[in-house]
Every structure is written in C-alpha cells, then in structure tokens.
Write the structure tokens for this entry.
Amino acid sequence: MLLCNIKDSSEQVSFREAVLRGLGRKQGLFFPDRFETLSDVPGLLEMPFVPRSTAVMQHLLGDEIDAATVERMVTSAFDFPIAARALDDRVHALELFHGPSLAFKDFGARFMARCLAEFHDGGPMTILTATSGDTGAAVAHAYFGQPGIRVVILYPKGRVSPLQEKLFCTLGGNVHTVAVDADFDTCQQLVKQSFEDPELKEGLGLNSANSINIARLLAQVCYYFEAGAAVNTIENMVLSVPSGNFGNITAGLIARRIGLPYKRVIAATNANDTVPRFLASGHWDPNPTIETITNAMDISLPNNFPRVLELGERHGLSLENLLSSLALDDDETRAAMRTLHRRGYLADPHSALAWAALDRCLEPGEEGVFLCTAHPAKFMEVIQETLNLEVPLPAELAAVRGKTVLSSTIAGDFLALKRELTTVC
Ligand SMILES: *Cc1c(COP(=O)(O)O)cnc(C)c1O
C-alpha cells in the first residue's frame, strides 16, 4: 500500500513506514494513495467477524503483508466479542466496548501493536505515552506481551480514578507505569521532551503509538461491516458515530469507499462543534474547547478531519450526500440516556449522544445503527447522577479490583523521568 503525506504529496511511503513514523513532514498525515473496491460485499457480510475482518485487512494490506501474517495479526488483535443489539425493528446499537479496556479504541490500538511487533527491526522499541486515564488502558493492554516492545505510560498521580488505575497499572511484564507527581499537561510535556532528547529517542527507540497512526484507522474499518451485517437492507442503513478526533468516522467513510454500500453517516459531536459549523457554513472556525460529560470528545481541533476531506477531494466520495453532522449539549445527552434507559438500554454518555443524533435524523424507510464506543461502567459517575443507578462492574474491572498497583512514582521533572527510563528500559 502506497501512502501520501496529505500536506506534501511528494512524500510517499509504504504502510510499514507510515506505521513506524506516525506523521510525515510538516506534521502531515499519511493517507492511502488509492483504494480498490471489494469484489464480494454480500458474501463478506455473511461471514463471522474475525474471518471477514481478515478478508477486509487482506484487501487493504495484501500487496505489502502476506495473507497468513494478516490473518495472524487480525485474529490476535480482535480476540474479544463485538455485538449488534436491536433496540427495535429499525435501530441497532453496535457495541464496540467488549475489549480489555472497555472502549472501542481497543480495535485500533491492538491492531497497531501487532503491526509494530511485526515491523520493528529487532532494535529497541519503547512506546512512551501520557494518559489522563482512558488511552493508558487501551495502550497497556494492546502492547502487553508483544515481543520486543516495552511500554512506558505516564499519568498524573492521584488524578486517575482508582479503578481506572487498576485497569492499566497491574499488568507488569513489558508494561511499566509511572505515576508522576504533577498534572496531565506536565506528563505530556515530559513525553514531548523525551522525544526531543536524541539519547532517549534513538537509544530506546521511542514511538508514540499516536491516535493519528494509519494502522489504527484501517483496523477500525472492519467493524462497519458488522453494522452492515446487522441490518435488513444495507442500502437504507444510516450510521451515527460519536466523534471527537474524527478517526472513527474516517474509518467508516473508508469502508464506504471500498464498497460497503450504506446510505449515509452522521458525525455526532458534543458542544465542541467545529465540524457541524464547518459543514453548515464552510468556515473553519474552532472555539476554545469546552468540558462536557462526553469528555472523550472534548476536542475542538479534530486532527483526523483532513482525512475526511481527502476522501471527498481525492477519492471520489460525495460527502454532501453522505456526511452530515449534528452537535448535542449535555442536557440533550442526559435526556437521551434517560430515554434509552426507559426503553431497557443502558448507554454511556458518548453512545447515548450518538443515538440522540440518529433519532433526530432518521427518515422513514431508513434503518439506523449507532456506535457504542465505551462501556457504561467507564462512566459510572455520570450514569449515577443522570439515572440514579449503580452500574454493575463488568468482569474486566471486577478482575483487577483486588490487584496491586505496580507503578513507580517520580517527581514531575525531566531528569527524574530520564533516570526512570534508563533504569527500566
Ligand atoms: C475516542 C472516543 C471517541 C471519539 O472517537 P474519534 O475517533 O476521536 O472521533 C468517542 N467515544 C469514546 C468513548 C472515545 O473514547
């Protein structure tokens, strides 16, 4: 697969290089130069998730990675359930949160980890990342036990919920967690500084496992086919995707481009509504980021949006007909959680927001699928406030509750981190 830098099309790289490098020159995103259409989509839709996903990834990557390797990577990355639940005869919830970190980011993070394990050249490789909670769990579980890769995760000491801390700080093995006596911004700053330090960057083979990595996006294409398999008539299917950085919806549009013939897709945002305003007015005019109860989407500069535009401009998708965007505020999100709960479905705030956007836009004759991106137990506090309800602990959280946190603690300065890194790596 040949990929181009969106900001500088003269920079062309293989999939392997794009995965290892993350970003291109001028901080440009890599994006496939061309897409081929799948030949037998109805046949694919009849297959179970893992074999179908293997076929989709072989279609995308087959010119660079042999079929058996793709099969091994997909099978080991997607080793947890996915579920489409019918709420009524025309609306389905696509539950993407049954992985080890209870969020849809497991799909992308785990596939990317298999790519790095496959591609790295035997030298040292250290994934260094800062987290305020959620990303840490997805990354820790994705790389746990991957041969030749060490993971170091920084987080602000005492500012991650105890349960969340247990989810990523009790693994051990090649996952090393560091509680930093500082806030999240300092943790991020420390990671940045490490990447600028040649001794660390080269010596430890630092890689960021960043969310803009193309490996994560391509892996996410697979579950849109599961949505397609859940509905009666795929040509009538409308998707609703709770969107922050717009990676998830980019994957949905790639699925459309390679042949999944759904009707249209809604990008549902919270009050951070840069994209809905842009689609309405043609002006890119981000406001300061606002805090909401759907905090994984508190983003006013969605860094994958250039890839969405690229699909329209260079890859022939007619975005005017395919893509719409709608913003909902916290009150509307809570109202959606209540309505869903009354109808017997417990949704986390992000998933409820996607349902509300779908509920507003679905027209007669259409069938809707909204993407459920996090397990309700990850947002217990909001659920308790909104529904006055205790969420039972899922097995993944119950299993770690009694375990010991293995993190070391350091001061929030670069020398302390450098000492820690050279000791553990
Ligand atoms: C990351 C995240 C999103 C947003 O996904 P993007 O790909 O950034 O648009 C939505 N919901 C949850 C729970 C998330 O963690």
Summary: The CA atoms of residues 2 and 14 lie 5 Å apart. The pocket of pyridoxal-5'-phosphate is lined by residues 103, 105, 134, 242-248, 296-297, 350, 373-374 (CB under 6 Å).
